[in-house]
Amino acid sequence: MSLVNFTTREITCKIVYYGPGRSGKTRNLQYVYERVPEERRGRMISLATQTDRTLFFDFLPIDLGQISGFVTRFQLYTVPGQVYYNATRRLVLQGADGVVFVADSQARQLDENIESLQNLQSNLLELGQDIRQLPLVLQYNKQDLPSELILTPGEMDEALNFRGAPSFPADALHGAGVFESLKATSALVLRRLAAGVTE
Amino acid sequence: MTPVGQVLAQWGFTRAVDVMSTAALGAGIIASTGEMARLLGQRPFPTLSHEGERFGIFLGSFPTGRGPLVAFVVYPLGTSSLGIVQLFFEHFAADLQEASPKEPATQRVLAADFERDLTDSLNALFGR
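^ inputs. structure came back:
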């Protein structure tokens, strides 16, 4: 849940990158970390296994600057994608203001994508949140792979985007679609916050 | 801070540590141990502490009129101790509970130019 501090004029929001294992969630944060100016980002923290698989979460705070007189900060988190870590995944999802669902565009990963999206819905339900009420953006990652291996963004939409959420093709390894996904999610989160904070 | 790691206020030599990252990690500890407690069929641990070579950390949850909050203390072992931290925490939690408003927060409008600022900030940060 967004934190609006009227005394210090600060807004803090939490965005969670969700999706199946090896879909590119951590890579999204690494790219943002590499590209956002140093004075606008904090340290990136990764709680990972020895083989660099996310164990608990990755965390990256970024500073959007002043918006309407409020210093606005986003805390970006990733969840562990591996099925085994569902309990920790649910913990990271707690208090999320928006979700970027990072799907793997490889055709053979379609079932994993669907399962992970269903898992997102059920974890949100357990936390008392309705997926339909939460700002959600879909990112179809790995679109740089050979076309015979992947599904097109249209086909991905057909399979996953039953809500008609904003969706973006991406190649997180080289950065395509990373900022577009984050920008769209940030905008959805802040617009929702602005609409909800009324006099 | 809030239980999900959003920093509300900080005091002391906070520039010596990365407060935002520390808070996120602290929230992770609270969340994971809370879940462990649930699996053990008991209420979440109200306080948690670890001591290292030079510093100790203390996490204490407490209720307020506006929901639960967490005090996260990093203290130097040479000049302080867990007992002192616990004592101050109890006073602090009681004072804050008494001072916290019971009625819901008054909601205020963000400025009308919110959208323009938002677009400008996002474009400036993400460079497109």
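The first helix of chain B runs from residue 19 to 39. The CA atoms of residues 77 and 89 of chain B lie 17 Å apart.
thumbs up if we can close this ticket
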